[in-house]
C-alpha cells in the first residue's frame, strides 16, 4: 500500500487529540458537499427547462428547415430546393412565406408575424395537437381564407376563439412610391375569417405574434408570387436526422442553410446556455470558498500531528512523503465532499422528478408545468466532480506552500 496514502487515511478517520479538529474536518467535508449538491441541482434544473422548451417547440417547428443564406426569400422552383424535396428520406415538404404585418379587428390592432403555409402543414407539424376551440384546422375552402391565431394574440385583438366577420391584415407594398396624399394606398390589404380554433404553443414568441394562413394569401399580401422564405421538411420514420441534414447541406451548398429544431431556435437556446454558464460560474465561486475550509482543517491537523511528523522523519520518511500525507488528506476531503454532494444532489433531483416537491406557482395550471423540471445530464455530473476536485486540489496546494514549508 502507498505509505503516504495509508497515513493520510488514518489521519483523516482517526480521532484527533483535539476534538475541534474532527469538527473542522467534518465542516470542510460538509461545506464541499453542500456546494457540490447546489451545482448538481441547479444545472439539472436548467437542463430541465431546456428540455421542456425543446418539447414545446416540436409541436410547431418542422424537423428540418431550409432557408436562404442571403435575403428573406428564394424562388420556390429553385432546382436545389426541388432536389432536396425529392430526396427519398423526405416524407412531407411544405413551402412557407413569413413576414411582418398589421392585423386589425374592430377597434384593436397588433403587429403580427403572418406565416403562409401549404395545405399539408398539419401533416408536417403537430399543430392539430395544440388547437383549442370547437372548429378544426383549415386554411382555405372555395374562396374563403382562414387564419389561425396564437391564443395570446386572439386575446389581445379581442377575437376570441371564433370571431365574427373579417380580420383585416395590412402589409407595406414592395414596389412603387408612397403617395402622401393617400397613405393607405401604400399598403396591401386582405382579410381572413375564423376557423373556430386558436393554437397554444405555450411560448410567447408564437402565441402572442403568429397567424397561420394559406401561402397564397401571404404571397398576395407580401407581393411574393412564386417565392418562399423557407422549405420545411418532415423525414420518414427511421431516417437518420444528422446524416440526412448533412446530405441536404451538401446539396444546398452556400446558397441555403439547413436548420434542425435547435438551430431554428438558436437565440432561445443560446440565452439558456448563457444563463446556465453564469449559474455554474457563481456556484463555482461558492464552491471555491467552501473548499478553502480545507485550508483551516489541514492547518489544524498539521499542528496536531507535529510530533508524529518528527517521528516519521526519524523513521526515514522524506520531506516529499510528509507533504504527500497531508496532500492526500486534503484531496480525500474534497473527493468525499464531492461524492456525498453528488449523491445528495442526484437524490434531490430524483425526488423532484418523481414527486414535484418544489412547485412553480401556488396554483396548479398557472404555468406550463406545475413543478420545476429537472433533467440530469451525465456530462454535467462529470463536470461538477472535476470542478470540485480541481478546487480542492488548489486549496491543498495553497496549504502545502503556506503551511508545510514553515513547519
What key phrases describe this protein's structure?
407 residues; alpha+beta; eleven-stranded mixed sheet; 14 helices; elongated
3D architecture notes:
Helices cover 50% and strands 19% of the residues. It has helices spanning 3-13, 19-57, 79-85, 121-124, 151-157, 204-207, 215-221, 241-252, 261-264, 266-291, 293-304, 306-314, 319-355, 378-402, and strands spanning 64-68, 74-75, 90-105, 108-117, 131-133, 140-141, 144-145, 148-150, 167-172, 187-192, 197-199, 210-214, 227-228, 230-235, 256-260. Strands 1, 3, 4, 5, 8, 9, 10, 11, 12, 14 and 15 form an eleven-stranded mixed β-sheet that branches. Strands 2-13 form a two-stranded antiparallel ribbon. Strand 6 and strand 7 (144-145) form a beta hairpin. The mean pLDDT is 85.
Percent of residues in helical segments? 40-55%
Mean pLDDT rating: 85
Q: Biggest sheet: strands, sense, closure?
A: 11 strands, mixed
Strand content: 15-25%
Distance between the termini: 26 Å
* Uncertain regions spanning at least 5 consecutive residues: none
Order of helices and strands: HHEEHEEHEEEEHEEEHEHEEHEHHHHHH
**Cα gyration radius (Å):** 31 Å
Compute the number of helices: 14
Strand tally is 15
Q: Please identify the oligomeric state.
A: single chain
Dominant shape = elongated
What would you call the structural class? alpha+beta
